[in-house]
Amino acid sequence: MKKEIGTVSADERDEIQKLFERRNGLNELAKILTPSDEELYEKLVKDLGETSVKFQNWWDRMAANYSWEGSEDGHWEINFDTCAIYLVTEK
């Protein structure tokens, strides 16, 4: 089930979209990079970790700021075109 629970500003949307795209790009790079290039691999792991923390912090900050509804069996999603936030659950 997908329920619209709020919106964010265009600036807030841009912030999470940048993190989303960076995280996806790093995940794709991780699929082709091998640990044999240790220095580059360590940079990738560090950057991916930092980006993932920033990504989760954005969601936590926005949820607290806007008092979004949550669910233990769900997660939030954003529509980048409309800035709408959805609560997605399996029920």
Task: Please provide a written account of the structure.
Strands 1-3-2 form a three-stranded antiparallel sheet, with no helix packed on it. The protein is α+β, with helices and mostly antiparallel strands and 91 residues long. Helix 1 (10-32) packs antiparallel against helix 2. It has one domain (2-89). It contains two helices and three strands. The model has no long low-confidence stretch (mean pLDDT 95). It is elongated. A hairpin with a 4-residue loop joins strand 2 and strand 3 (84-89). It is 57% helix and 20% strand.
Features:
91 residues; 3-stranded antiparallel beta sheet; elongated
How is the secondary structure organized here?
Layout: E1 2-7, H1 10-32, H2 38-66, E2 74-79, E3 84-89
Antiparallel strand pairs: 1-3, 2-3
Helix pairs in contact: 1-2
DSSP helical segment count:
2
The CA-CA distance between the termini, in Å, is: 6 Å
Structural class: alpha+beta
| Whole-number mean pLDDT | 95
- Uncertain residue segments: none
| Strand ordering within the main sheet | 1-3-2
Radius of gyration: 16 Å
Strand portion, in percent? 15-25%
Work out the count of structural domains.
Answer: 1
Number of strands: 3
